[in-house]
Input
Amino acid sequence: MIDKTKCYELRRLDVERVWDNHLAATAGERWHQRYIGRHVIPDFLVGVSANDSSGIQLLAINQRTILNWMIRDVAGKAIPYAAERLAVLGRFLKVLAGTGLIGADLLAEYRTSRGRQSWQRLVRALQTDNPEAALAELRLVSPPPGPLTAHVRSYIDLQQALGKDYRCQEDALQDFDGFLRDQAVLSAQAVTPDLLERWLGTLTCCARSRIHKMRFVRRFFDYLQSLNLVTRNPVPVFLTSPHRLPRSSFKPFIFTRDQLGAILAEAKKLPDNHMWSRRAETFSTMLTLLCALGLRHGEVLRLRLCDLQFDRQTLFIAQTKFHKSRYVPFGPKVGHCLERYLDVRRTLLLPVRDDDPLFVAKRRRPISNRTLLDIFREILCALRISGIPGQYPPRLHDLRHTCAVNRLLRWYRDGVDVQSRLPVLSTFLGHVDPQSTEVYLTITADLLREANVRFHRHFGSHFDEATHP
Output
């Protein structure tokens, strides 16, 4: 059934501005989908256009106009391609809802009412002789609630409000809730270790995934216990033990100070090519931000001119991983580097708009993620930085690991209480909590040496007295 209560009339100019900003914000990502989007979204805007009495172009956006456009758009197209086009429209409508121009994500709500069907399944229904009847057959029939349904919903809402994704956790908990319903379990308090073992036996995933799902359930019952809804956690600790999981041998590559200096120096030697001039200035500035500020490379690629605030010496990083935005401060050296790059950029691309991407190639084309990765590998090959035999080769993301480790090393050398500063580092890196930051803190020889010096400073006299009474 179509929701007829949510109808929005928007000025086309406002919607086109949102689309332009979205293209700038996603510069360097999903190049194939961006290419499709440059055709899909203008077609969609034409399909829902109307003029008012004063001649202003308006858009009538509601579930009916969206559905009518989708029926027309998928006609005669291959199912995978048509599904990609609908996915692009879905992302754009989500962005539009996020700006407040429309009060709800209409296409997402429609998909939810159809059981969150895949785009390809929706295309198959839309391409039938009677698409509305085919879509009606997909309508979601809600199963009867289980003993944990209400608690699962509030738990997932809480975690997602904290910026976590939690879709995998939601799927696992809903599956467990359905199992309990089928077993005629009436309350969370009635869950036993035996029931958990039997649920595990119904899962067809690998052992690693089963242990992860059991960890999800254990954290969920910790939450219920904190609310006094259960008196104990029924999940046995041994079912979530890390010893039951295969150990990961991955270690990030931590660059030395000399290697970082050589990488930046090599970037300044990059020759121009047909894609853009001043290639050296562009990539040396990007790598400087990655080395000095520990940004994710996607965050650097999505920076816009308006995100630079020289008066406050900060970069604004908008809506990145974990759905968080943050301000990242930078020092005088990084500030001078950015100012030099902006002087070059203004001479190449005029006029300059505030919402333009900061880093672009010729004809204002954003730099892709693949291009940045290829240039970084080219620099590493030129410098013969290949890593340690038997370990993973250096990655662009390892610059972020290196930044975190160097910050920790500097705090040790300055005599700072490192443990109390971890929340600061976590916020700087854009993490949800300090536990997420611990992944980046690889032990290096320098870090271990500084930790030993600090330990000896505090407790060395006791060992000296014991050795030389």
Summary: The chain is about 55% helix and 5% strand. Confidence is low (pLDDT under 50) at residues 462-468. The domain at 250-469 is CATH 1.10.443.10 (hpI Integrase; Chain A). The longest strand covers residues 57-61.
